[in-house]
Specification:
mainly alpha, Endonuclease Iii, domain 2, Endonuclease III, domain 1, 11 helices, 67% helix, 0% strand, globular
């Protein structure tokens, strides 16, 4: 665990950013209340598209494909992404995932995400399901947070580098296995408890330490 001096510095930093962090978490909470099937599909697709390019490109990409997301062909989605995304071939991930969810769940995504009683089972469904393309544990956590589910660490490179700089983990690289991911997440939970905040708040704090911004 981090030393006392570092802990105090983190508390001060959190106090300085607390209002912005809580405001963003409130937005996610409101999103949960109003998230219908269409919005959940958009958030899932946003997280598929954000990997390796960042949230700004992800948001632009969603705007570009919104009209064809639910029923457009792979070719139509590719064409819409071509001028805004580095990897327009992710259209394959999007269509494969969408059609799997249509076939198995009739795209009733609100009903699907609410059906899980166990939080880890909920994340594993999206992270480890071979028919959901382009998500791992990190992006599945991001997706679930964005639709209002709490308690997941989003271990992207910014959060992991912050944890490494604090001496909490021994590598600045994101975890490559579920076991390692859970181990780091447990360490974050312990640190959050010491700080007197939730893991969601800590996650945002660590991300902002590297970027200067609050994540979306």
């Amino acid at each position: 665990m981090v030393d006392k001096e570092t802990l105090e510095e983190l508390k001060k930093l959190y106090e300085a950013k607390k209002d912005s962090i809580r405001a963003q978490l409130d937005e996610f909470d409101k999103a949960r209340a109003r998230a219908d099937d269409v919005k959940i599909l958009e958030e899932l697709t946003f997280c598929i598209l954000t990997s390796a390019v960042g949230p700004k490109v992800g948001l632009k990409s969603i705007d570009a494909i919104r009209d064809v997301l639910r029923d457009g062909s792979e070719e139509e989605i590719y064409a819409a992404l071509e001028d805004v995304h580095k990897y327009p071939e992710r259209s394959n991930y999007i269509v494969h995932t969408r059609e799997y969810l249509r076939r198995e769940y009739s795209l009733k995504l609100r009903e699907l995400v609410d059906s899980f009683k166990d939080r880890q089972e909920r994340r594993d469904f999206f992270a480890l399901n071979k028919n959901i393309k382009g998500l791992g544990l990190m992006q599945a956590s991001h997706f679930l947070r964005n639709i209002g589910f709490t308690g997941y660490a989003i271990l992207d490179r910014n959060v992991v580098k912050s944890l490494n700089s604090l001496g909490l983990i021994d590598s600045p690289k994101p975890p490559s296995s579920k076991k390692k991911y859970i181990e780091i997440e447990e360490k974050m939970n312990e640190l959050a408890t010491e700080l007197g905040i939730g893991i969601d708040e800590l996650d945002m704090l660590l991300w902002s330490m590297r970027t200067g911004r609050i994540p979306v």
